[in-house]
Design a protein that fits this description.
This protein has twelve helices and 17 strands. The protein is of the alpha/beta class and about 400 residues long. Bound molecules: pyridoxal-5'-phosphate (PLP).
Length: about 400
């Protein structure tokens, strides 16, 4: 592991960074300047779904760069039309807006929710979100995010937003009235600690949204794009949203976000919203490759099988190391809650050239590239065992 202290004063101090400079990546491995290989269980925070330097992404990017990188959204590109078609066909929704990130997809969804409400009544502006939710860092998305620590320095934020506890049907029912224009939720909460929505709660959210003529908006920025072993996380509940937010894995590393709506939520008209870069042909070409690969049933089966393999391996490790409190999540968005502090696990793992990220004080997130193999999981388990031995010593 490289141990140079990085002192990059020209970069704003917005991240608690590790002192590693990465130079290249291949599959589930990242290589630093000295050529040390790190097993990447962060995957750019659930972004690099196909691993690093996937040959089909490389080929598509090289071809697209040589042809056309960017053109204004006042014209069309086939790459954008194709990606829109694929997302609509697979989600059963009807039209897509492209942006550049997760937070931007939530901004668009928020505006769609408000505009939808106002077409019904001027007071239909209330939005219901969930405690522990994370929806992004721009002012609108931040207003939907729960963690007060992220919000307090930046208020006043967007108003008329109220949070209820996840899976509390009664609280959600009590919060709903005809002035609510949207319910916004992650089917599986990511940053908040990896918490699964219960089927009954998701079904109630759908029924209550219908009852009060509000939109049901799913933020699948982190849990979407095959990460659960289902192309879209909501498909495992059998509940369809009116608005679906995607980003992260959609571009496998190329910056892209999307909002996909059904006919009811298709309320934006020219002048309402836009993005200079959103849906440019380079990002959309990456999105097309991702969609072609991850929507195949065999790929989704692989994610499910690897998920079972890793859960079983962690449970076996627990028999001898007694570290595990709970495994939450689905597919390859897992939260492993242990008796140790996640910061300590992450630090020790780094020493073993294993990249991990936390989700709360005692939960480590398992969000590797979806193409990871059983052999690579075995390497992870070996490294993780060394970490556990160090922590218990
Ligand atoms: N929504 C969810 C569920 C997320 O996990 C994130 C990022 O972690 C965002 C929105 C914001 O996405 P981005 O960081 O691309 O703006």
């Amino acid at each position: 592991m490289s141990s140079n202290k990085i002192n990059a004063e020209s970069i704003m101090n917005t991240y608690g960074r590790k002192d590693i400079v990465f130079e290249k990546g291949s599959g589930v491995w990242l290589y630093d300047e000295s050529g040390n290989a790190y097993l990447d269980f962060v995957a750019g925070v659930a972004v690099n779904c196909l691993g690093h330097s996937h040959p089909e992404i490389v080929k598509a990017m090289q071809t697209q760069v040589a042809n056309l990188v960017h053109v204004s959204n006042i014209y069309w590109t086939q790459a954008q039309i194709d990606l829109g078609d694929k997302l609509c066909a697979k989600s059963g929704l009807s039209s897509a807006f492209f942006c550049n990130s997760g937070t931007e997809s939530l901004e668009a969804a928020l505006k769609i929710g408000r505009k939808y409400g106002k077409t019904i009544s001027k007071d239909k502006t209330k939005i219901v979100v969930l405690e522990k939710a994370f929806h992004g860092r721009t002012m609108g998305a931040l207003s939907l995010t729960w963690n007060p620590k992220y919000k307090e320095p930046f208020g006043p934020l967007v108003d008329q937003i109220s949070a209820v506890p996840l899976n509390d049907i009664k609280a959600l029912t009590n919060m709903m009235d005809d002035d609510v224009c949207a319910i916004i939720m992650e089917p599986i909460q990511g940053e908040g600690g990896i918490y699964n929505s219960e089927k009954a709660f998701v079904e109630s959210a759908r029924a209550l949204a219908d009852q009060h003529d509000a939109l049901l908006i799913f933020d699948e920025v982190q849990c979407g794009m095959a990460r659960t072993g289902h192309l879209f996380a909501h498909q495992m509940y059998g509940v369809k949203p009116d608005v679906l937010c995607l980003a992260k894995g959609l571009g496998a590393g190329m910056p892209i976000g999307a909002v996909i709506v059904n006919e009811r939520a298709d309320v934006l008209v020219p002048g309402d919203h836009g993005s200079t870069f959103g849906g440019n042909p380079l990002a959309c070409s990456a999105g097309n490759v991702v969609m072609d690969i991850v929507s195949k049933p065999a790929f989704l089966d692989h994610v499910k099988a690897i998920s079972s393999y890793i859960k079983k391996a962690l449970q076996t490790l627990d028999e001898t190391h007694d570290f595990l409190k709970e495994i939450r999540g689905e597919g390859l968005i897992l939260g492993v809650e242990t008796k140790y502090k996640s910061a300590d696990i992450i630090e020790k793992a780094l020493g073993e050239e294993l990249l991990l990220i936390g989700a709360g004080e005692n939960t480590v997130r398992i969000i590797p590239p979806l193409v990871i193999t059983e052999k690579e999981i075995d390497i992870f388990i070996n490294k993780f065992e060394i970490v556990l031995n160090q922590l218990s010593a």
